[in-house]
Amino acid sequence: MARIALVGAGVLLVILAFGSAAFAQSDCSKIVPASPWGPNDQTGATNRVTAAVTKAAAAEIQTGKVITMSYPLTDGVPLFGSRFTKTILTATSLAPGASYGENELTYMEDTWLSQSHVGTHLDGMGHIGRKDCYYNQTPMGKYINQNNMTRLGLEHLKSFATRGVVIDAVKVFQAAGKFKGNPACKKPCLEKGTVITGADLQAGLKMYNVTLREGDIVIVHTGWGDLFEQFPAQNATFNSGAPGIGKDAATWLASQKVVAVGSDTWVVEVIPGENPKEAFIVHNILLTDNGIHIIENVRTDLIAAEAAATKRATFFVNMTVPKGVGMTGNFVAIDGIQ
Amino acid sequence: MRLPTPAIPRGRRRRRVRPRLRILLAAVAVILLGIGPPAAAQRRWVVAFANLTEEPSVTLEGTGFTGPEVRESFTLAARPYPIDLVFYDNHRDDARAVANAESAIARRVDLYVQYHRGVSANATVGQKLQAAGIPVLAVNEPVPGAPLYTLDNAAAGRMAGEALVQFAARAWPGQPVVAVVIGSVSAAAEHVPERVRGVADALGERLPAARLTTLDTRGTTAQVAPLLGAFLSANPSRKVLIAATDDATALAAKAAVEAAGRARDAAIVGQGVDRSIHGGINDRKEIDPTNRNSIVIGSVAFYLDRLGYEVLPLALRMLRGEPVPPRTTTPHRLITAANVFVEYPPYDMN
Question: Which single residue of B106, B150, B262, B305 has CA 20 to 30 Å from A264?
Answer without folding.
Answer: B305
